[in-house]
## 1
Amino acid sequence: MTVTQLDVDALVTQLTLEEKASLCLGSDFWHTAGVERLGIPKIMVSDGPHGLRAQLNEADHVGLSGSVPATCFPPAAGIASSWNPDLCETVGKALAREARKWGVSVILGPGINMKRSPLCGRNFEYLSEDPWLAGELARAMVDGVQSLGIGTSVKHYAANNQEDDRLRVSAEVDERTLREIYLPAFERVVTKSQPWTVMCAYNKVNGTYSSEHHWLLTEVLRGEWGFAGAVVSDWGAVHDRVAALAAGLDLEMPPDLQRSAPAIVAAVNEGKLPESVLDETVRRMLRLVSASMPALAERGDFDEAEHHALARKAAHESAVLLKNEGGVLPLMPAAGSTVAVIGEFAQTPRYQGAGSSQVNPTRLDIPLDELKAALGDDVTVTFSAGFGVGRTSDDEKLAAEAVEAARAADHVIAYLGLPSTDESEGFDRRHMDLPANQIALLEALAEVNDRLVVVLANGSSVIMSTWQDKAAAILECWLSGQAAGGAAADLLVGRVNPSGKLAETIPVRLQDNTSYLNFPGDSGFVRYGEGIFIGYRGYDATEREVSYPFGFGLSYTTFAISDLEVSQQGSVEGGDLAVDAAVTVTNTGTTEGAEVVQVYVRDVESSVARPIRELKGFAKVWLQPGESQRVSIGLDERSFAFWSVRLGRWAVEGGEFEIAVGSSSRDLAVSETIKIDAPSIAPPLDADSTLQEWLASSPGRSLLGRLASPLFRDTELIKVIGTMPMRTLANFGMGMAHQKLDELLEDLRGAGKKA
Ligand code: BGC
């Protein structure tokens, strides 16, 4: 079937000014505007990132009203723990099939903001504290969705890292931190996968609303990264439609029909907004509509059971086995034994977060039923709620019943987690603790059973240091979608081997997180004072013990990583540096399983502060018992670069770099130090350069040598005056007068020219 697509250039010449203005706004909560007389249809956009929230009749952006039944896949916090881009791509395709069925052209996701603080209420919707991991998984998801003719909206651009005051707060963040931490995930998705749209954030960045941020929306996104799609506002993020248009924001959602269209028309008529700017936006909107048309013409359907099975597979890989003392898992109850299942979440599962991403699931696994089925009829399974979710009056009674059940049982599994009132879009948490009634229950259970298994359901990380020694095993399932219950059962009985790895660090205390003193800010500002040192970069730099490090996760088998070989091709100077890190990974245990090989890079010596290690590549490898595989992970120039504020670009500083490979950020089995040559990035010497800087450069040293001043040879004195600019030394007449300095500078310029 041939599908009509729009002739964008011709249409731009036929549209009236009013029609052009109308195309820059939605026509209602979920639709763009059409122009009937020219055959331009409306298209529909819908949340969400881990399952469709298509509202065919109702409309809200906080998840209050109903939406069509859709598969609820694991939210980002879960699926990120899979460290599996292929899985993300497959889930992306499934999301696209569901979108096609309902005539939705653009899915509003994935959410790829960095987890700056564990307290962010929306962390369940975000992937990681690491930009490389988040960017790589999001890229795969976008590829999956878009391969079936449905668009994505990568969100929320940029620096939307909290919910408190999110519609107004100004994220005060320096450029290097933006470039190295908060922008790279967006950059990767844009440069690799060209998402059809990018959604701007609500908040301000350094005083300017993201929706009006020319530098973010036009200079960086389009100018530097080559984004060709449309920028969509977050719902209600536009304040001044004309300023937003001039900054590069194409589509205002939902539309302020009363004010925005007339304001655009007036601005063009009054010469305040060049019509060419409007035309560019119109072109981008028409291209978006045009790209949507093939899928709308051939909608198709999806197989609910198949998608549920995929949700289960995704939930398997989302779970992280944090602790498994004495091999308490997988559970292998003898025939005739009793398993006590405890915890309200076993019968009322928590599997997704609240707000705009809330899905109306096609079906829902009940963890208790799933576990019973997995254990079979030879085992007796008892259930006690143990605690009330959000209620506390019955807690003592419920806990006492649970303790009795545990006492009578051979195996005890406690399903704990965060109630939905503790985390949601719209507000941030104040602490990271599990509810007190659950911790009290856990302590009481540990008294009567020393092989307690804890299964967790939570979207943001929780503090475990206060209770983890009471549990023999901890399976962190995050919020992992409608099939979470079945997936947990599969993992508990060993039908599936856990393979998830933490996409965020679990700290010992909230106070150890480097954003602690600056979160969530006040008086309209939040200062990103920790700079580039978020997540493991921060815990490593401040040498904090953590409960479970970034990248960590156990398996029912064991792995060995060995024989690192690093090879280097090309050069920084030639712009084609390519480094390859190859290791052998072996399944040294007795069960089939998967290991995630992680590559971290460290600049051994640097002129700027750099993290102790940064993830720059990874690969998930499935191996049979005894099997080995050679895995090679490629690194490029950017893997070694930092954002030089002085040069206004990425820069590699020549010297030694350590490449460490292992199974978590704090378990790096093998490492090798390589030397990378790169052109000097030291600033040219001038009168503002310090004495130390002059002495550190060979022309500077030789020129100073000519002065024959004892001051410049006195190492003790140099410690004191070495940080003074040459101009200041000349002011004080220390070692030289101004005239002498001028001569040195003249000679320096001459030497530079000759070179
Ligand atoms: C959220 C977005 C969402 C939009 C539409 C906003 O409140 O921040 O992530 O896509 O609503 O529901």
## 2
Amino acid sequence: MADVARARTAEIIAVGSELLTPFRLDTNSLFLTGRLNDLGIDVRRKTVVGDDPQDLGGALTGSLERADVVILTGGLGPTADDVTRETVASVLARPMHEDAAVLEAIRARFERRGAAMPAINRRQALVPEGARVLPNPNGTAPGLTLELDDHVIALLPGPPRELQPMFDAHVLPLLATRWPGRRLHRRVLKVTGRSESQVEEIAHPIYSRLSTPEVTITTSILASPGQIELQLAASGRQPAAIDAALDAGVEELAAALAPAVFSTDGRALEVVVCDLLRARRWKIAAAESCTGGLLLGRLTDVPGSSALVLGGVVAYDNQLKIDALGVPAEVLAAHGAVSAEVARAMAEGARRRFGADVAVAITGIAGPSGGTEAKPVGTVALALDGPEPVARVVWFPGDRAMVRALSVAAGLELVRRAASRLPA
Ligand code: AMP
Ligand code: MG
């Protein structure tokens, strides 16, 4: 007898010979995995196959033996190398027929652009018996779903901007109604200024006992330069119980990791900083040396940042630090460009000259050359000028890209702490 509570499984097959070259990556499966997990469906295997009926047929046959849900992406185009539709029909031994409505929709799409439909596009109107056609408002290739006794199979177009809305509009509701029950809820705590092992040491004793008989919570740690994410995924049958267990877990972890936790609602560090600047009615300026404008780049990625960011200077050259920021030549001579004194003078200069409420400065040695015994590669001076000035020299590990990314995160963190009145 079927176990109704059993966690359902899925496999994803990404079809496209370009995905087997060094030039294209299968990203559709990342989107699909997120959505399937939200439905409580485990993704057990992902396969990438070229545009080859034999390879695809073999992959599909294997997936159908193992998984409840099989999602194929790509290969629905009009050209001879698009083989997904035909291969699925042949593996399932279902004849195909031309669907008049689909053909008309494709023809109309061409007509709207003032063109006649090329004859080859007619193939896209072929539908395996029993399949449901999913309209594609963003392209010519319609999607297809097949509901079998034990399986759901979906065929979706390759381009992410066509696949994503189609999945959400048609496949997601289908799966949710077919297998109601287990759901997966997620939360993420984002931390900066701590290493992965520091976070693990504090968090492990807490997250290892978050699960309850009703709710299973699994935690994973994701590290990227300047940021550690603690991802909590909880599954159970009662949405309210899942949320309650997650809320309690997040609260306990956030308290233990404070003040290094900058968000528990998914916001990125630069977004948190912008929200704080807005709340404080602060305008910010920056003086960047080794980060070359990357800090202002991240801040101005945020929509609405033009009301908060005045601007800044990229002052790589020492003379420019003097001319554009008013760093005293004696301070540069006495302490060197990578020093707390110069970083402080850069921040003061940026704040004063640009009329900002708060200014942040970064000057460091990103490498690979330029290091000395006293100031090795990775030495970075950071300063903030504002209500409570801060200046310090730190050392970051890693290559040039890593040192720059860590410097930007540390600079943004200085602003976050100042704006939320946390100790720097
Ligand atoms: P197709 O539907 O096979 O004609 O794919 C059209 C385009 O969609 C390809 O050229 C890729 O740029 C893109 N695409 C196909 N499969 C994927 C995938 N798995 N992930 C991301 N993009 C894809
Ligand atoms: Mg293709």
